[in-house]
Recover the amino acids of this structure.
């Protein structure tokens, strides 16, 4: 092979009290797609921040050689000038601005501060064509889907004459179709000579598109695998990431399914701004005690909308249907009533919907169940401490103290806090919306164990997930949802990814 | 992680930390508040020196309380509005409107003063319901609703006063200018004030002891006794000094009693009740609060109604203080109250702030006013200084967080600790600047986001062991 486009040598980065990276080496060949794998907290994002100048030269030890030259980036502008562009997991687009305005933000097309819109528009069309996005450049970014927004981000990078593109979890928020499109685009860019570094938790994708894979664990380089030489598979990557074999990514579980617990009958929900637009159409769904039920659907199929409308009608307008629990009809039109009726809903987005990041672990755990520890409206702080300690132990939340702020916890531990919060309400039915999104492999396993324990204690669990292997590994039965319609109810024994995908993309004649 | 706390068995954790590091930890949660408390003391000492001992004359200290009472009362309501993520620009106008109505009801309708006060409170609540309705149930930003309210209530105030000044009866004036009556033997001090001071100290000591025994009983880490003693000595010493100063003049003024009662009540509400929890939850993340079963609209309504209620009290206190309702009453009160809240450690984005902090913030501004006036500094210049103090207080807080440093005081203590050695350095309160413990490593540097707001520990501040300096 030719000389690498990028070499990072012996990178060491310390924060007060902790060494995030120690002697990390990374070598990226020209024109390849290079993936970086590692658990959350392994140091992937830190390494990329060193590379892109977010942590300026001097705040770390080691050398960065890019295109044969030693680089000393003082900030993100320096790295961009050299042709290194990073696309963060959380997109940096401005929703209220148009595509063309976003594309050239900070890089405006014009002279002396005056923008030449015809030129900008023309260039925007070229860039959009390169990423295969057929949208009017004048559309507001907020009006296009998240998959298309990701493409706009890439087009924005291309506008800066990118040589090395860094993508941090590019498909985390995308559905399968959009992910597919994005991966194809990366392969297309590769064919045009653009080198990419991709950070991802989705091992299947990594295996598919990467030329080589560097595995980082605990701030050290473990190994670099050459995919083109073969012999790389998911288990091989996982072994490198966690330092042990995870033969079983899902804990063994013998379901003991009991009586019918919750039934959703003929459930229809209208869009919050336009109740004539049905988001969920005549859905029927049932959960038995001790059963883990999956809900599969593409992005926009109405999974979260169904769950949230069931949970105290906290989404949209309920247009019809009945909720029956233990044979009795529930009238739970507020979240509090739903909680009182024994429902719990763990949101898909921990940070914006699940937690108040200003709170401590203690306050977070009791936030939904304050009714249980109040005496005449006063919070019983002793009970609160006891409850928080109980869930810290049973959920294995890794923290020095329950007085620690939740913002400081890793994603996996935050998710355990959220689960603890909802278990504290002592629900009979738990709806878990993407319970393992953005969580590393080890913590996922722990979450699965918790879910199994919940089912074994006679509760019913409904799991919503975009990762089909997760549903197949965890659930006893899986419903598929397509455009607001439940299209199938498949027992685990008969389910595989292809069958589910077929139902998820099918449209029932209504 | 090594000092993991054993959850259930009631074995007290061995004191593994040095005293200094424990002190640092205890202080670190409330960066701006402790900073401001010390700034307040320094400010008082400075004026004491600059005015040749005039500043801490009993008479001067009493007037500090009387002159700032109404702003501090407004700040109590304002901090709750701001914690919930809103703002109230109308409180000055609302206070004036209530004050004028109450004065008029006594002058023209011959209402007895207790009835007039009830009328004023009811009117304040109505004002709050009016504004709360638009904020909570129509969803108009509080900035707009209360800007409209500022004009609306000022207009009503001017209309009913008709450019006249309406005097209030002497019995009503007592709210602001009255004092607790003297009883008992001649001691050279005001006896009831002495008793109240000692009572307050006893309560504070009791609460601290109870807190320690609670911690021990539940197997939590108990801070070492020395730390509690230092804390109690400092707090009780200040309280005693303040009480003695008041007692050697005319005793505690009625407005001081009202304020003290409100501070205790609202500290309790915000720190110990479900309602208080919900206010913080709504301000911290209203979506998460809603999905946890909090009726966010009712919380929004409550904070606005509560603000109206307190604005009514403040308005009546001010009218009593001036002995009359005047058309220009209450102009700019909202800005003084808002400044007190932000100097006292609240975050603009909501979710952070305390009643005690706001009182300290308000006193800092009040001490500046009074001290500079004692020194006969031009009032235009006083404005400039106050503006810079507000900016400086918040800027210092933002800066120390962006640096990941705990605080000015934390930095001093860290220096001391380096000399003394020991400590596990777990008191990293900055919340910024990257991971600090292995578990703290998170996706995309959550520390950054945290750094832009105030620290979570502030929520803990008003626990019963933290008394109010003005509660005497």
């Amino acid at each position: 092979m030719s000389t690498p486009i990028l070499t990072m040598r012996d990178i060491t980065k310390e924060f007060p009290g902790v060494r995030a990276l120690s002697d990390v080496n990374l070598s990226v060949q020209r024109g390849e797609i290079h993936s970086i794998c590692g658990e959350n907290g392994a140091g992937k994002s830190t390494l990329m921040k060193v590379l892109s100048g977010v942590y300026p030269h001097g705040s770390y030890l080691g050398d960065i050689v890019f295109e044969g030259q030693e680089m000393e980036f003082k900030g993100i502008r320096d790295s961009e000038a050299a042709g290194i562009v990073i696309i963060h997991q959380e997109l940096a687009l401005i929703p209220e601005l148009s595509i063309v305005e976003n594309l050239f933000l900070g890089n405006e097309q014009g002279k002396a501060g005056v923008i030449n819109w015809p030129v900008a528009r023309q260039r925007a069309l070229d860039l959009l064509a390169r990423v295969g996005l057929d949208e009017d450049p004048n559309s507001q970014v907020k009006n296009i889907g998240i998959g298309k927004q990701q493409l706009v981000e890439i087009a924005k990078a291309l506008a800066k004459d990118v040589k090395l593109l860094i993508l941090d979890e590019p498909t985390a928020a995308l559905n399968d179709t959009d992910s597919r499109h994005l991966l194809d685009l990366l392969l297309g860019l590769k064919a045009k000579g653009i080198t990419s570094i991709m950070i991802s938790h989705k091992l299947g994708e990594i295996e598919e598109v990467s030329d080589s894979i560097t595995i980082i664990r605990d701030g050290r380089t473990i190994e670099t695998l050459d995919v083109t030489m073969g012999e790389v598979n998911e288990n091989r990557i996982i072994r490198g990431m966690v330092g042990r074999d995870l033969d079983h990514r899902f804990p063994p579980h013998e379901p003991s399914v009991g009586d019918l617990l919750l039934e959703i009958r003929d459930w229809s929900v209208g869009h919050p701004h336009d109740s004539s637009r049905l988001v969920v159409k005549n859905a029927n769904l049932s959960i038995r005690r001790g059963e883990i039920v999956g809900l599969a659907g593409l992005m926009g199929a109405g999974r979260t909308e169904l769950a949230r409308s069931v949970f105290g009608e906290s989404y949209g307008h309920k247009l019809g249907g009945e909720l029956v629990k233990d044979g009795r009809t529930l009238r739970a039109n507020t979240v509090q009533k739903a909680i009182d009726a024994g429902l719990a809903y763990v949101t898909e987005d921990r940070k914006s919907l699940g937690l108040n990041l200003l709170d401590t672990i203690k306050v977070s755990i009791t936030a939904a169940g304050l009714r249980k520890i109040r005496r005449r409206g006063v919070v019983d702080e002793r009970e609160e401490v006891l409850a928080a300690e109980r869930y810290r132990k049973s959920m294995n939340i890794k923290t020095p103290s329950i007085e620690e702020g939740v913002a400081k916890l890793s994603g996996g531990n935050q998710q355990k806090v959220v689960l603890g919060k909802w278990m504290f309400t002592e629900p009979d039915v738990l709806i878990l919306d993407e319970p393992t999104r953005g969580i590393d492999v080890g913590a996922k396993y722990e979450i699965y164990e918790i879910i199994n324990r919940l089912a074994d204690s006679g509760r019913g669990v409904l799991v919503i997930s975009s990762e089909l292997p997760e549903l197949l590994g965890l659930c006893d039965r899986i419903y598929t949802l397509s455009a607001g319609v439940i299209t199938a109810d498949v027992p685990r024994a008969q389910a595989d990814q292809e069958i589910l995908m077929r139902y998820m993309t099918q449209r029932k004649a209504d | 992680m090594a000092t993991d706390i054993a959850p259930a068995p009631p074995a007290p954790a061995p004191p593994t930390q040095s005293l200094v590091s424990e002190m640092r930890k205890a202080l670190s949660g409330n960066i701006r508040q402790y900073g401001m408390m010390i700034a307040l003391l320094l400010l008082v000492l400075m004026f004491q020196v600059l005015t040749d001992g005039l500043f801490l004359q009993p008479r001067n200290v009493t007037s500090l309380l009387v002159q700032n009472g109404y702003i501090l009362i407004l700040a109590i309501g304002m901090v709750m509005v701001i914690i919930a993520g809103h703002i109230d620009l109308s409180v000055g106008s609302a206070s004036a409107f209530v004050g004028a109505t109450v004065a008029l009801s006594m002058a023209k309708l011959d209402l007895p003063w207790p009835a007039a006060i009830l009328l004023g409170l009811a009117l304040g609540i109505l004002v709050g319901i009016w504004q709360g309705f638009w904020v909570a149930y129509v969803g108009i930003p509080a900035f707009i609703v209360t800007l409209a309210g500022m004009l609306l209530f000022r207009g009503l105030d001017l209309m009913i006063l008709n450019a006249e000044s309406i005097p209030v009866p002497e019995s009503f004036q007592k709210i602001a200018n009255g004092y607790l009556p003297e009883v008992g033997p001649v001691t050279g001090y005001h006896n009831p004030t002495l008793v109240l001071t000692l009572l307050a100290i006893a309560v504070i000591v009791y609460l601290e002891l109870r807190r320690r025994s609670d911690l021990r009983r539940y197997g939590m880490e108990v801070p070492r006794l020395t730390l509690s003693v230092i804390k109690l000595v400092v707090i009780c010493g200040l309280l005693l000094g303040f009480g003695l100063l008041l007692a050697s003049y005319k005793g505690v003024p009625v407005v001081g009693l009202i304020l003290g009662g409100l501070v205790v009540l609202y500290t309790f509400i915000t720190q110990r009740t479900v309602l208080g929890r919900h206010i913080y939850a709504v301000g911290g993340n209203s979506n998460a609060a809603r999905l946890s079963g909090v009726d966010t609209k009712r919380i929004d309504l409550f904070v606005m109604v509560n603000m109206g209620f307190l604005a009514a009290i403040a308005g009546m206190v001010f009218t009593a203080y001036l002995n009359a309702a005047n058309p220009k009453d209450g102009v700019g009160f909202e800005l003084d109250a808002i400044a007190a809240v932000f100097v006292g450690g609240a975050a603009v984005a909501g979710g952070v702030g305390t009643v005690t902090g706001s009182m300290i913030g308000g006193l800092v501004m009040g001490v500046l006013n009074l001290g500079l006036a004692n020194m006969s500094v031009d009032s235009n210049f006083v404005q400039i200084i106050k503006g810079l103090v507000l900016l400086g207080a918040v800027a210092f807080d933002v800066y120390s967080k962006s640096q990941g440093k705990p605080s000015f005081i934390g930095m001093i203590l860290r220096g001391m600790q380096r000399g003394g050695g020991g400590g596990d350095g777990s008191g990293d309160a900055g919340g910024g600047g990257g991971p600090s413990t292995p578990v703290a490593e998170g996706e995309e540097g959550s520390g950054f986001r945290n750094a832009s707001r105030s620290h979570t520990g502030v929520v803990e501040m008003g626990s019963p062991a933290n008394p109010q300096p003005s509660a005497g």
Remarks:
- Chain A has 17 helices and 24 strands.
- The longest strand of chain A covers residues 274-288.
